[in-house]
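Sanity check

After download, print the first record. It should look like this:
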Amino acid sequence: MSDSMREQELLFAKTLEKVVKRAKAQNHVISKEQVREEFMALKLSEEQLQMVLDYLKNHKIGIGEPVDLDEYLTEDDLDYLDMYLQDLGGLSEVSEGEKKAVTLSAMAGEKAAKQKLIEIYLPQVVEVAKLYAGQGVFMEDLIGEGNMALTLGVEMLGCLETAEEAAGLLGKMMMDAMEDFIRESGAADDGGKELAERADQLYRQAKELSESLLRKVTVAELSREIEMEEEEIRDILQAMGGSLDYIEEGAEDAK
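Expected structure tokens:
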């Protein structure tokens, strides 16, 4: 693969990763304008930009507004959460003011406040777990990892200055714990890296077929050769800049 193509693939993957991180920092929401801004160097067409937006939506990132996470859950996930949330139903709800007061007391080292803070955050662990559902691990395990991170986190609040910092730390620890668990289980889905790898495979297959036929190949020919749908090939081409060497999309199929 040419150096320019490899550089473009690397830039695309890194930019996509940056966009995902930015969205996570914004409660899994990002605007279309922010995505366009991040990908400015790649000069994406509106169609390519829409593909990126669709990818983000498929990975539970809202465009302009939060997504309904329940829509991404399986029946097994929903059944488990229904039972789990029933168990949590006995916990009393607290106002934002009460939550802040308990947080400050926990930061001061009060044991009872720490336990209360854990109870307050248990429902949030569920919401965070929904973000990571569908990645090859059980919802029960995600919640378990989040609960452990929460328990550890409340013991680390003494060095912070505000309740807002405490909320940020606890949320980050929950997310990091679940991401680490998914990564260690081998189920992580690195979309940018995967797309670059697929493009690299497509390039090598196209080059081999082109050298065999002594000409550029069509998408249809390449589809038959590597058993990949034409639409998928075109999606990869569009996402990576519109074309790859050795592929002549406009040519008629060779018979």
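If your output differs, re-run the checksum step. Summary of this record's structure: The chain has three domains: 3-63, 69-185, 191-239.
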